[in-house]
Specification:
Strand order of the largest sheet: 6-10-9-8-7
Structural class: mainly beta
Mean pLDDT: 96
Radius of gyration: 18 Å
Low-confidence stretches: none
Order of helices and strands: EEEEEEEEEEEEEEEEEEEHEEEH
Shape: globular
Bound molecules: beta-D-mannopyranose
Strand content: over 45%
Largest sheet: 5 strands, mixed
Helix content: under 10%
Length: 340
């Protein structure tokens, strides 16, 4: 039984392995990574940066798949154990709210979040440049695209799993048009999923360590806990050989998640294994989803590895929360400076 409480459901069939390898970090890898290898479905060269959720007594996934001609799109899959996945033969087919076909030119880095009985998919779409696309489904058969929430350019849209003070809340990372060499995490609210406002700065890149000194971006939907919202995210540093993406963790205030309560000054997972260091884009760990069991405090984190594979890592709510608190670093820019 955990000391810190996860607010949410029990998930007795969560994938799980105890820690096997000594490490000073609070997150450890699944021993059979990667759980999704190259060429995982017909016409698909790679699946990575993908999202999963419990669905009945099974699991559903929305995957970032790249075709054998290199086009990123979203594809669904199902699994009995959240480890072995059956990936659908075709991309997700979206319609708009009038029932007309409304498919994105490209789509990548999906998050999948259930709020009040409906599943929202949030991804990076083409809206005169990279921006945030949103859709919802209840049955994973019909996918209805909703209004574009934000202006371009923006990526890493991450929805909170419940309304806060009556509003939907979404993290995002405004940017320029390319593989932006800057970026902080912001937050916006909406009463209806159409009108977004009350924009707030949440968290800055930087801090004393260099692993997140170029840009940061939200990861899985934050996990509600008795200590605040547990947020895993990615932090990027630049090297003479390109960017390196690691995973970080922070805790946000429950009622006002634009306030950072604690953020760990160290990464909690960084590329070390062959499937993280070697691939289409080397040295990338990009978390997009978690599964968690409120009864045991176990957390399974799904991450894209080297823009080529899907990996899983584990932690417990007690271990990660104490690590973040004990290794907290105050970053001056995390304060509000744009709010009247
Ligand atoms: C980002 C996104 C991610 C990708 C990462 C590393 O800009 O495109 O999908 O994993 O770069 O290539």
């Amino acid at each position: 039984m955990a000391n810190v409480k996860i607010v949410g459901n029990a998930l007795p069939n969560i994938p799980w392995q105890d820690r096997r390898v000594e490490s000073e970090l609070p997150v450890w890898r699944h021993s059979e990574n990667p759980v999704i290898d190259r060429n995982p479905a017909k016409g698909v060269a790679r699946i990575f940066n993908s999202a999963v959720a419990p669905y009945g007594d099974k699991f559903v996934g929305v995957f970032r798949a790249e075709t054998i001609n290199g086009r990123p799109h979203l594809r669904m899959g199902w699994s009995e154990d959240a480890l072995n996945w059956d990936i659908n033969d075709n991309p997700i087919d979206f319609i708009d709210e009038d029932g007309k076909e409304y498919n994105p030119l490209y789509a990548y880095d999906p998050r999948l979040v259930k709020v009040e009985g409906e599943y929202y998919i949030i991804w990076c779409t083409d809206f005169y440049g990279a921006s945030i696309g949103v859709a919802k489904t209840v049955d994973f058969k019909t996918f209805v695209r909703l209004e574009n929430p934000f202006l371009p350019f923006n990526r890493n849209g991450v929805l909170f799993p419940r309304k806060i003070n009556g509003n939907f809340v979404m993290l995002s990372r405004p940017s320029d048009s390319g593989h932006t060499p800057f970026g902080d995490i912001f937050l916006s609210e909406s009463p209806d999923f159409v009108h977004w406002g009350k924009h707030r700065h949440v968290m800055s890149k930087g801090g004393d360590g260099w692993w997140q000194n170029v840009k940061i971006g939200g990861g899985p939907a934050p996990i509600e806990t008795s200590e605040g919202w547990l947020m895993f995210y990615h932090g990027v540093t630049g090297t003479c050989n390109g960017f390196v993406y690691s995973m970080g963790a922070a805790i946000l205030d429950l009622d006002d998640p634009s306030k950072v309560k604690y953020r760990a000054k160290n990464f909690v997972l960084t590329p070390e294994k062959w499937y993280e260091e070697r691939g289409f884009v080397p040295n990338v760990i990009f978390p997009c989803a978690t599964l968690q069991d409120a009864d045991t405090g176990r957390i399974a984190i799904y991450y894209g590895a080297a823009d080529t594979y899907v990996g899983i890592a584990y932690t417990t709510i007690d271990e990660i929360v104490s690590y973040v608190k004990e290794n907290h670093e105050d970053v001056a820019d995390d304060k509000e400076n744009g709010k009247l």
